Amino acid sequence: xxxxxxxxxxxxxxxxxxxxASPPARVVxxxxxGRTLGAGVSGKVKEATRLSDGEVVAIKVIDYAALATKAARxxxxxxxxxMHALASESTHRHHFTEILEVHEDVDYPRKCGPGGLAKPxxxxxxxxxxxxxxxxxxxxxxxxxxxxxxxAKAPEAAAAEVATPAFARGLGACKTLFRQLxxxxxxxxxxxxxxxxxxxxxxxxxxxxxxVLADFGFATRAAPAATPCIPCTTDCGTRSYxxxxxxxxGDRLRTFGGGGAAASYDGAAADVWAAGCVxxxxxxxYPPFETATESDWWFRACRAGRHxxxxxxxxxxxxxxxxxxxxxxxxVFSVDPAARPTAAEMLQHPWLLAGGGEDGISASGGAxxxxxxxxxxxxxxxxxxxxxxATRLAVAAKAKAEASKRAGGVxxxxxxGFGGGGGGQ
Length: 425
Prior knowledge:
With about 425 residues, this protein is of the alpha+beta class. Helix content is about 40%, strand content about 15%. The protein has a 6-stranded antiparallel β-sheet. Strands 7-10 form a two-stranded antiparallel ribbon. A hairpin with a 3-residue loop joins strand 2 and strand 3 (about 45-50). It is globular. Residues about 1-20, about 355-375 and about 410-425 have low confidence and may be disordered.
């Protein structure tokens, strides 16, 4: 059969270079790069596939331009050392992001520019990490809402919804995930490590529905000592999660300059404040403060010891906010860092020791359980939480698909993750 020569019948110049097929994946150090999972100050986090065995990983791409100063290079080395130290801790290592490989001085392939023009590669450092298939907690909450949110706003209707088994299962999943976050923080603080940027964006969910604490770029390390205090001297973090003492330090540094023991705060206590903010968001779906400063009405109520007013105002939008959680957060949102409970003490709070409801059977050991029985209960809690997360994910994906269909767009695949992954991984 004779071949047919293609003839461009358009009056416009030939556009054959605009290929119909997708462009080939960029490959670096044996990994095919995929979608962007998140972005931070130092660079992006990309999903990638190892060509040799097909394993899906997350790669943090750090531009050499972000490592121009000695402080930035020291900070990166500290981040890697911190993650290695936590991943080597056997009991709770699954609650931390694990670094698989580190590649320095890499020529990172960039996307083509306008008209298909190739851009020169850029020098980068690559941190190859375990991938968390279910993305970050923030995306999940944005898709599904808080665990204590009710569809009904009227008190009677909300109370009826709270009494359902589905609500109890959701609350139980919230407690299980938060206990896992506290367990990860206890492991950090016992090793003299303050995370310094605890937030839902940096809380990931792995393929088994377990919580993974990520992004130790702001972490501070101190020698473990008898005191749980971890001195921190920089006003770092994310605005809505920064404890009041961090804001106070920033004000002192800007006004008087640095120096001295007074120009520091306890990183462990600041992590507890941030963890309290995360729990509040997990339950309600929105943050407790804009900033923990005098300009914020919510913070001023807590500073004045009027936590009752704080919760009364918030509960207009979340009437089913658990009473036990209010008691725990009243202690956590103490302006005095020394008055806050530690992460280990939070784990012993009665509300967290209870099961799915307010007064369920203890799910974390305690005096009434032998160690083996506690492990069985904890495993059952993790399995139940994973099932709840999967259900919420499916509902959110279905809602997205229906909304996209109504808008005439392309529906996202069901089970694609909690909204596409997030910062820190």
